[in-house]
Amino acid sequence: xxxxxxxxxxxxxxxxxxxxxxxxxxxxxxxxxxxxxxxxxxxxxxxxxxxxxxxxxxxxxxxxxxxxxxxxxxxxxxxxxxxxxxxxxxxxxxxxxxxxxxxxxxxxxxxxxxxxxxxxxxxxxxxxxxxxxxxxxxxxxxxxxxxxxxxxxxxxxxxxxxxxxxxxxxxxxxxxxxxxxxxxxxxxxxxxxxxxxxxxxxxxxxxxxxxxxxxxxxxxxxxxxxxxxxxxxxxxxxxxxxxxxxxxxxx
Length: 251
Known about the structure:
There is one protein chain. The chain is built from seven helices and eight strands; from the N terminus they run E-E-H-H-H-E-H-E-H-E-E-E-H-H-E. By secondary structure, it is of the alpha+beta class. A hairpin with a 2-residue loop joins strand 6 (169-178) and strand 7. The longest helix is centred in the N-terminal third of the chain and has 58 residues, at 16-73.
């Protein structure tokens, strides 16, 4: 007959009766440790993550509320006017011919005429692909053109070009005189910004909305510029009209 299994009197130096007495407690401790790793710690991490999201949302909400409060405290008419100045500082359409028509509008006021114009080779294509600033959708649009008109009005014309909206930049300036007629060879450029330009509004802070001294000076400066309405140009708007004339040799 087989002998029944018996525990030794001593286990790890402890009396077997003490070990049997504490065995349920050891089991509970093991169950607690397993639950701690599998359930309690993950749940605690989830709660901590939710708290972080709540705090982040509260911070974002407070930031937006501060911005709304600041914008609401400003003179809305002045804010709208400043926004229009900045909006009109660049071309509305990516058309070089439109830029020519804007210059023609200014030149006509001083009895100057656009004799010829051409795109600066490579400039428009390069800037379309690379951009001229950190914004990918900013395009520099240069044109080379010749103007002719009265010599005594040339300075007024140049000053008018430099104080025109959209803002015009004169890169090259050469003159040729023939009596009282002055020929101006210019390279003029302006900028076009696509409406699809992506701006990360989530990173805008209250300090970004407050104009710096330099930005305020810029707005004040261009507020004195003359806006040339782009829809005054006839580019792309002309229509063909057919006229019928009587044949004078018909009977």
